[in-house]
Design goal:
Elements (H helix, E strand, L loop, with lengths): L1 E10 L4 H11 L4 E8 L5 E10 L1 H13 L3 E6 L5 E12 L2 H9 L3 E5 L3 E8 L1 H11 L4 E6 L3 E4 L16 H13 L1 H4 L5 H5 L20 H10 L8
Antiparallel strand pairs: 1-3, 1-4, 2-3, 5-7, 5-8, 5-9, 6-7
Length: 234
């Protein structure tokens, strides 16, 4: 088993987090940490998911994630190619010893009373773990720790993955909404069930089946051409 970090771009819409979490629970995979937040695009959110998996299982997870209708792009955040940080807030006794530990780890005292201090630290997972190990003998009163956040090094961005369709994420979102409303027009009737994972009779109830909806890439590209979006560039 090995630790893997996935960065996932998703549509910023209700229920997306529940669908992603459900995918992992159905397959019996444990999520070590999951952090979700906004991006530079208000229509898109970014998830950072830390998993303990074998390599072949990671490939399966990535493939299943990409089938979710709300997922725009996925990439594994390799150690050498990404920046990874966690945030820690921890409350301990107010003493000379705990303040010395704060200095040692380049942390910050965010709040102080006569009895306790609240420490703020930002760093890599091993640095956060080291700080906590030094504080434990002094008694940890309370702590809260964020999930891991990861960002690619250099010029590349995860959003550029969407360019495999020559599309901006906003345009993928636009297509998917159009597809839900006009599915019968976009796909031939004999291909629609295969592409969408539903029977022809279910097409009229497609909105209710959005959680199970899958858009295979070859059909996505053909449908995009039909509605005139494929040629649209960033």
């Amino acid at each position: 088993m090995a630790i893997h970090t996935l960065a996932v771009l998703v549509e910023n819409s209700p229920g997306v987090l529940a669908r992603v979490a459900s995918l992992f629970s159905r397959r019996g995979y444990n999520i070590d940490s999951l952090a979700v937040g906004p991006t530079e695009n208000p229509k898109v959110s970014r998830m950072t998911i830390v998993l303990n998996l074998e390599g072949h299982a990671l490939d399966q997870v990535s493939a299943q994630l990409f089938k979710l209708v709300n997922v725009i792009g996925i990439a594994e955040m390799k150690e050498l190619d990404s920046l990874k940080r966690e945030i820690l807030l921890v409350k301990v006794a107010n003493s000379a010893a705990t303040k010395e530990i704060v200095k040692k780890h380049n942390a910050v005292i965010a709040d102080e009373s006569k009895a306790t201090i609240s420490i703020e630290a930002v760093g890599q997972s091993n640095a956060i773990e080291s700080l906590l190990n030094d504080l434990k003998p002094h008694g940890i009163r309370e702590l809260v720790q964020s999930g891991l956040a990861a960002l690619e090094r250099g010029d590349k961005t995860l959003a550029e993955l969407a360019e495999q369709f020559a599309l901006h994420p906003n345009q993928i979102i636009q297509f998917r909404q159009y597809a839900l409303e006009h599915m019968a027009e976009l796909f031939d009737k004999d291909k629609a069930p295969k592409a969408m994972g539903v029977s022809g009779e279910d097409l009229k109830d497609l909105h209710a089946k959005i959680g199970q909806l899958t858009l295979e890439r070859d059909f996505l590209e053909g449908a995009l051409s039909k509605v005139g979006l494929l040629s649209a560039k960033r």
